[in-house]
Design brief:
Elements: H1 2-10, H2 35-44, E1 52-56, H3 62-71, E2 74-79, H4 82-98, E3 106-110, E4 124-128, H5 133-149, E5 155-159, H6 163-172, E6 176-181, E7 193-197
Parallel strand pairs: 1-2, 1-4, 2-3, 4-5
Antiparallel strand pairs: 5-7, 6-7
The protein binds S-adenosylmethionine.
S-adenosylmethionine (SAM) binds near residues 57, 58 and 59.
């Protein structure tokens, strides 16, 4: 199975779901983006070597480590669950060890998306359904504030986008839908990727 095989090749452990104790939380559970979805992204979206990706709700670090492995772009991940963040730290260490890498431009930060201050170098933002639309609005607002202070092209990559995210982006923000990337390997047709540009 591709999930087990790719985790093993990278030297990381990212399979599995972690629910919050409070199932009504506005914060969603930890669940990794399937590798086939990341492959669909890589086949249809060209990263620039100068990109700095922020994985908003990075879980155990799969997206950042895999995209770095394939493209060598700089990656930051923010995560609000301490246990999950510890696992992301271990995964980064085992990835670097397995691939004899010393200083990869990958870092994880313990922070909520609401409180995180976007860095001017960050220009590509990845979301896999990390939280409710209320929190999403705050996260997008932080990106817009950063854009106002440091104008630059900005890309949002949204995997498995819920309708509320799409409606909000369309009706209340300057982001424009730029691409729809299907993931044919996944049986559920709602598991596609949307790319928005500012
Ligand atoms: C569905 S997982 C996605 C993990 C990873 N991005 C991936 O695609 O493989 C969402 C993650 O967002 C984290 N999260 C939820 N609310 C958050 C918040 N307000 N700030 C930062 N991280 C959050 C969760 O703990 C969880 O690990």
């Amino acid at each position: 199975m591709i999930e087990i095989r790719t985790d093993r090749e990278l030297g990381i452990k990212t399979i599995g779901i972690r629910e919050w104790r409070d199932r009504n939380s506005v914060y969603n559970r930890c669940e990794p983006t399937p590798y086939v979805a990341l492959d669909a992204l890589l086949a249809n979206y060209k990263f620039n070597p100068k990109d700095h990706l922020l994985d908003v709700g990075c879980g155990r670090g799969r997206v950042g480590i895999y995209l770095y492995h394939k493209t060598k772009i700089r990656v930051t991940g923010i995560e609000i669950n301490e246990t999950t963040l510890d696992e992301a730290d271990s995964n980064l260490a085992t990835y670097e060890f397995k691939h004899s890498l010393k200083h990869t431009p990958i870092q994880w930060v313990y922070s909520s998306a609401e409180q995180y201050e976007i860095e001017p170098s960050q220009n590509v933002f990845y979301f896999f359904n990390p939280f409710s639309v209320q929190i999403f609005k705050k996260a997008i607002n932080n990106i817009l504030i950063s854009h106002k202070e440091h104008e630059r092209p900005i890309t949002l990559i949204i995997y498995y986008p819920i309708g509320e995210y799409q409606t909000y982006l369309k009706k209340s923000t300057p982001f424009k839908l730029a691409a729809h990337i299907p993931v044919p390997e996944l049986l559920d047709s709602t598991q596609y990727i949307l790319i928005y540009k500012l």
